[in-house]
Known about the structure:
The complex is a heterotetramer of chains A (330), B (161), C (175) and D (376).
Chain B: H1 2-26, E1 50-52, H2 68-72, E2 78-83, E3 92-99, H3 108-112, E4 118-120, E5 135-137, H4 138-144, H5 153-160
Antiparallel strand pairs in B: 1-4, 2-3, 3-5
Chain C: H1 5-17, E1 47-49, H2 52-55, E2 59-63, H3 68-77, E3 81-90, E4 95-103, E5 110-118, E6 123-125, H4 134-145, E7 148-150
Chain D: H1 2-8, E1 17-21, E2 33-39, E3 42-49, H2 57-62, H3 70-73, H4 81-96, H5 102-130, H6 135-155, E4 164-165, E5 168-169, H7 175-200, H8 203-209, H9 217-223, H10 228-231, H11 239-242, H12 263-287, E6 307-315, E7 318-326, E8 334-338, H13 340-346, H14 348-351, H15 357-366, H16 371-375
Antiparallel strand pairs in D: 1-2, 2-3, 4-5, 6-7, 7-8
Helix pairs in contact in D: 4-5, 5-6, 5-12, 5-15, 6-7, 7-12
Amino acid sequence: MSIIEPFRLLLFLVGIMAFVGLNAAYLVWVERKGAARFQRRPGPTEVGYGGLLQPIADGIKLLSKQLHVPPGADGVLFRAAPLLVMIPAMIGLAVVPFSESLVARDTNVGLLMIFAFGSINVMAIMLSGWSSRNKYAIISAARIVSQDVAYEIPMLLVVVTMLMATGTMNLNEIVQQQAGWFWRWNIFRLDVNPLMPLTFIIFFVCMLAETNRAPFDMAEAESELVAGAFTEYAGMGFGVFFIAEYANIILGCAFATILFLGGWQSPFGVWSGVFWFLLKMYVLVFTVIWVRWTFPRTQFYNLLNLSWKLLIPISLSTLILTAVVMKVLK
Amino acid sequence: MKALLKEIGSGFHSLVTGMRITLGQFFKPQVTVHYPHETLKMPVRFRGHIELVRDPQTGKAICFACKACEKACPSDCIIVEGVKREGERRKSVTEFKLDFTKCSLCGSCVEACKSEAIRFSKDYNLASVSKEEFIMDLFKRLESEQPKPPQAQPEQSKEAA
Amino acid sequence: MISSLQELADQFNKLIAQDVPLPTTPAVPVAAGAQVGTAAPEPASPVQLTDHAAKGFHLDVRLRPERVVAAATLMDENGFAIDAVTGVDWMAEGQMEVVYDFFHPAHAWRVVVRARVPREKPELPTISEIYPGANWHERETHEFFGIVFLGHPNLTPLLLPEDATYHPLRKDFKA
Amino acid sequence: MSALSALSSGETKGETFVINVGPQHPATHGVLRLKMTMDGEYITRAEPVCGYIHRMHEKMGENRTWAQFLPNTGRIDYLAAMAYSHAYVGAVERAAGIAAPPRAEYIRVITSELNRISSHLVWFGAFLLDLGGFTPLLYAFDDREKILDILEALTGSRLTYSYYRFGGVCNDVDDDFIRGTREFVAFMRPRMKMYHSLVTDNIILRKRLIGIGVISAEMCRQYGATGPVIRGSGVGYDVRKSEPYSVYRDLDFDVPVYPEGDCMARYLVRMEEMVQSLRIIEQALDKLPAGPVMASGVPRTLKPPAGDCCFAVEAARGRLLVRIVSDNKEMPYRVRLRTPSFCNLSLYEEASQGMMLPDALALLGSLDLVIPDIDR
């Protein structure tokens, strides 16, 4: 390790934080504008041109509000929860290769690292619900735990399938394997797993569930639990959860892009680069928004049924199928 | 098993159909009117708060304080006073108080008025920080306004009908 | 199950036949100007088939307050649904009238059952055991008129504040 | 679900706690409060607490003239005000022996049915919002806006119409109204298809509604639940058919009935009712006779003869009964409003027992409550 490495890492971490912050702010804008377009209304228009300054206005509003800890709540955990939910998303992005060289830490266990830190997310939201001393928040916390645990299993099974297909945990290597025309992307690698597109859909669904996005937003479930685990949070405490939600979406979409859609590889085999990565990622992010503004919320037991009775069996069978296919073909 | 597969198939199809529909709406033009940059034309029969009508000949209020509107009002929010001046055939109105905080915009008063002396205004932008502003003296309001150009009159009498 | 309204009227007649005749309402002179209510002249028979086009119901039954449970049971057995329970304050006559409306979901039948209770002691048995839907209607009638439904499980105000002690639909109530 | 059977037998395994859903809660549109005793996510008892916007319309009726009560009728159920005016006007006309001219009756039917569609559209949007789907709400409001524009141009008001009078209606319809209504009918039919493929067929929605919140026909009868609630429980009870008022006898329409009694059945009943209302409007426009819109000889101060009479209409939420008692004075002796939401909500406590919170809120949404209609 050279002497520059710590500085390089620091620079990247600052870069990632800026990237996440900017993205979260402007994804809120994109979400609001997108929702508006789906619903045939203008969305924010008044603050800045096309409402472009709206996220900044929102941020200032949130910052100016009092951080209120409800009486009887566990103050330490209540304050720690927003941080705990934010940090794993940031760390996860540290191993994401935006392009061949644009990666904070090109580690050999990148895949594992994202999952290791991603699991903290569940605990953090649960803590926020539990420490709020609010009945809605408690119900929400209980829901989140069972939901996230249920969806982590099929997600991991899918990732193990990909691991077998690629044979590496290094994210950059996974992308490099997908070089060439777009049929070289993992999503079209029907030779290792004939059910690959289905595997991708399972991954995408699990990603929606893990990030507590509609139609799986049991945690917030506005019409049932007011604001779920975040009911008692005010000001920037709530704001951090909000940013973390988008950070997690970005991480999830980036991860899906790397695993299935060839990361920074161009679909034509030439001019690969960060542009392609961002394009693919934002298309996925748009799909997430699109899904949210189309469907009603699932019921809780249907959500668990979907995971335990459908996604886990299917992902398990794709795993076995891949194993068999790879064994036979080799 | 077959039923389950069928359900998965039709379920997935329904989700894709839903997404197709919302995407179709995405590219359609907006339906919102950008208030306050754009406003809509109020319909002719719009029931705003009431106002007195000016007689185009004399330039004074038509109202002669018969109090039919006062009696018709279900919320008791109208108080009309009038005097009979020397040399005039009928009474003339001196005070026409409308307590808009109580008014339910039902239009009974306009209907009760036989001489079309009151009509609905098209003023929908009513907001204030004090209650007193909504206890309006419509007679003073009429007096303080400039008489409108006469061509506006025939249309208004049609509205009141 | 009945097949015609005449049959139902007969059943009501049978029910009422056991009673002593209803007391005729005392004629009280009405003070000029006061809104105290003069009821329409009451029909001779307590069970009347009426013209729906003129009244809005088909059968009009007047009975003694202690008979309302039997009447409600009769309605329930014949498949009627509860429409409403309400009161009318006949202050001049010193009485309160409790009106039960029933409709039939399958036939186009409407039945009105009335019972009068003295104004000083407005009490009659509840029918919420037979029709759970009457529970709320009786609570409402209780809070608005002060009519007590004996045996009602929860005779607390429904629409008025919890601590309301007044009965706004009584004719002598002034806000 | 063993917890469910434990609940129905009255025993709870652990601690219960109370949550207040309302009076300020996103799922109770208006100020309804549900005091829910919960065992985890299961409801052991949900007690509705109402009266937060009680205004005592019935006493108001006793303190003003017959005609002065008319504006009040628009403020009981603010989403379907026409039907309430219709019931009150009908009762007074019945008591006073006034008959509205045929053109007025047709106009009443057209406007009432337009109002029913607009009310069902609000329900549709709000119900989907309860289920977490936001976008259909705005599509529904977009359509409803068209109805409100039509009715505003006719009556001068968007919600509290106060349009009917004893003996007719206060304004005649013009060609713009007829053209606008025909355009709306033509526009709405494909819209309904769109709603079905966007919402009704959606697997998530079907999973949430089918078999949830079953209300039996017997329960409806005992509680006096009417409208789409009883029709979703397999009983084809509709006041427009059973006690035909106005000119409904001359119009051809079906009463949609679904036997399942679950939320989906009530949903489908309302969706189908909108289509039937479009049919009614179309026929009524075709048959609209010429002539006056007000009966002649209606006295200015009305004094109906002493006695009581009822008038029932099919409001958007069910059977609405107005009972008036007259003592031959210029003010009513008693006005009784039997509102459908009141009776439909009264069965909630029994129906919601042992349900999970989100299902119970789906059930609440499927009852289509308007709180001022309950509290009056």
